[in-house]
Amino acid sequence: MNKKSIIVQGREVLFFSKEDEDFISLTDIARYKNPEEPKDLVKNWLRSKSTIEFLGLWEKLHNPGFKGVEFDPFMYQAGSNSFVLSPSKWIEATGAIGIVSRSGRMGGTFAHHDIAFEFAAWVSPEFRLYLLKEFQRLKKEEAEQLKSGWNLQRALAKINYRIHTDAIKDSLIPPELTKMQIEAVYANEADILNVALFAKTAAQWRQQNPGLRGNIRDYATIEQLVVLSNLESVNAVFIRQGLPQNQRLRQLNQTAISQMRSLANAGGIKRLDSKDPAAEYSVLTGYKYGGLPRAGFVRKDMSGPNC
User: Which of 83, 89, 169, 236 is 20 to 30 Å apart from 265, CA to CA?
Assistant: First the structure.
């Protein structure tokens, strides 16, 4: 678990991300009011009937495995003088996922940011506002960094596409070909990369997504664009070596699968299907199976780096 932190009114507040959701340390928030025994403040918050009601509703909305039967006694007893509840008891009894307890030096009680902000408001409305402001600032910075990284990889893919099309011109396009034939060859090569990585052509993607603007590569992840950039360079080498189209496609697909699997192990990216797409192309004629148009009749909007 990779923990990060933000500074709120001079105090460090730890948080971590799990399945694209952020969990903030209730223990660190509690230290704002009770630096010596923050866990006692968390337990006092859990005694409140309004707290139990809020936590139960949150779990019902987000947790299919929430144990409603075990929750009912807590709801009935909450608020009474004899009622005591620890985070670990709440988690074990109800199967809750909104609160997480961790042991060790960097441990403590963490909660989904929805719950953490609710707790912070109970501790101090002022502290909650500063916490919310700092957290939003961090999320904005992360979004800008992600956007910057995506644009960088998109630009890299376009640069490598130029190298890729130069190789096609050198090896596949005789001088006597017409402009339409040249465009058809370029589009065909672009679709080879699309099929190798996305398992579909640009035309197939547009047919499946009529309501989306742009093209298939505009909706690619950063990881897919990294692999696409590599495939363009590899395909340029294959073209200069004179490999037939179906052989190139098969090797490009295997390269895409291998690289995406490596990235998936690092970041949970959706894996590619291992289907062999080479059968969708004939070796020499450029005909595509499955009812798609022939290479000689590819539309102009299927050519170029945006395919």
Answer: 236
